[in-house]
Amino acid sequence: MGNLSEQEEKLLQAAKEARKKAYAPYSDFSVGAAILTSSGRIFSGCNVENSSYGLSCCAERVAIFSAVAAGDRDFVMLAVVSGISGYTYPCGACLQVLTEFAPKLTLLLINGKAEVLRTSVDALLPCTFQLKKQD
After folding, report:
1. pLDDT digits (tens, 9 = 90+) for 46-81
2. Whose CB among 67, 71, 90, 100 lies 3.0–4.6 Å from 43's, allowing a Cys bridge?
3. Helices 92-101 and 59-69, interaxial angle, to 10°?
């Protein structure tokens, strides 16, 4: 897959494995994601659909929420894998969640041809919502 580090290869492999567990009976669009934390841990997630579409959850948020639930919030990199020929970008909701923790997070997107695109959260969502607490 090109010039990827061993750690990046592991992250992409975890995302690929997570994709196999996706529950996507309505869209038939399976996505896997894996997030690397500064402690070296990898948390993976897959998309989970529901017949009430608004209750579905993207693979990226499943991975992020798993890491947070385990007490790990310092993110280094996120990999997203799907089986399409183009790249699958995180949706706006996932990008907003990522912004909460790591607005400059590196993203590795891999397409069905095993090509990797490197980008970042702030490149994909430059104008994020930030809750400003009032005094």
Report:
1. 999 999 999 999 999 999 999 999 999 999 999 999
2. 67
3. 30
